[in-house]
Write a structure and sequence with these properties.
By secondary structure, this protein is an alpha/beta fold. The chain has helices spanning 12-25, 64-80, 95-100, 147-157, 175-182, 195-207, 236-241, 243-249, 266-273, and strands at 2-11, 29-34, 53-61, 86-91, 106-108, 112-116, 131-135, 165-169, 187-191, 214-217, 227-233, 250-262, 277-279, 283-285, 288-295.
């Protein structure tokens, strides 16, 4: 069986409206994603977590009725879009296998590995015993391959976590909280506004055998607590806005790790935390940076 895929870029408000129109018209699925290289903003309570410029992809069956529908939609879409929509025919595939081709076991630091379910790392004789985080392919947004997540995973691999309580603020797939638990943390709290992220975290925690030590919460349900380690892999704007809360969640002497910061945004984020943290040297990967430090006693 084959499919017809219709793709176009639009500003967020227009993409949201067209998404609803396409679903009503008979699209089998409609997905929204980043139209360029813009990171996704951490949404506030009740907000939709979307980029400002959206790539909308609609999937239709390859049949006479769908072809007629698309033929009618193309000029209508062309009239409201800055560039014509793109149409292509997709042959049926085992989509999970296609995805797995780009997701392989990956090491972060010395011993921490992130692996798709059913795969194991290929170790050299001199490698230390691996600590493996397994992700379900169906839920693996946040696999560690983005530089912001990789920077946090590398920090965790080198941290002393035995017995610690760790907060993963903006948890996505839960990868950081799960990695912390597998590296020795006693308890982790995963926090996110997005219900899909919380569900993905819950399932990934189950797969990794750490669900009993992981507390999964929306931000508004997080009780006051001071943790030994707080990780916030979000973006510069929210990091600045949330600085009082993130500092307050970190116990005196505890570690606070901030990621999702573009290199040119480092100074604005640093300024929001400098009075409260003894900052460690900046770490960068590609265009992204990580700030970390210890909260003053």
């Amino acid at each position: 069986m084959a499919w017809l895929q219709l793709t176009f870029d639009a500003r967020r408000e227009l993409a949201e409206r067209l998404s609803a129109d396409l679903e009503e018209a008979g699209a089998l699925s409609v997905t929204l994603g980043d139209a360029g290289d813009e990171p996704q903003l951490e949404p506030g309570p009740g907000e939709t977590p979307l980029w400002s410029e959206i790539r909308l992809t609609a999937l239709f069956g390859d049949d006479a009725e769908s072809c007629a529908l698309i033929a009618r939609l193309m000029p209508e879409l062309g009239a409201v879009l800055s560039a014509p929509p793109r149409l292509e025919r997709l042959e049926d595939q085992v989509w999970e296998r296609v995805w797995l081709e780009s997701f392989r076991p990956t090491r972060f630091g010395q011993r921490l590995w992130v692996c798709p379910q059913g795969q194991a790392p290929e170790l050299e004789a001199q490698d230390p015993a691996p600590v493996i985080v397994t992700l379900d392919p169906g839920l693996a947004f946040g696999t560690g391959h983005h530089p912001t997540t990789a920077l946090c995973l590398e920090w965790l691999d080198g941290a002393a976590l035995d017995g610690a309580t760790v907060i993963d603020y903006g948890c996505g797939s839960g990868i950081l909280a799960i990695a912390a638990l597998k590296l020795g943390a006693a308890r982790a709290i995963a926090v996110d506004h997005d219900p899909q992220a919380l569900e993905a975290t819950r399932e990934n925690a189950r797969v990794n055998g750490v669900a009993e030590r992981l507390d999964i919460r929306a931000p508004e349900t997080l009780a006051p607590i001071e943790a030994e380690v707080v990780l916030a892999n979000i973006l510069a704007g929210p990091l600045v806005e949330l600085s009082p809360r993130l500092i307050g969640l970190t116990r005196p002497g505890g570690a606070l790790v901030l990621s999702g910061i573009l290199n040119e945004q480092v100074e604005s984020v640093r300024a929001a935390y400098a009075e409260s943290l003894e900052l460690e040297p900046l770490r960068s990967r590609e265009d992204w940076a990580r700030l970390s430090g210890r909260r003053h006693a």
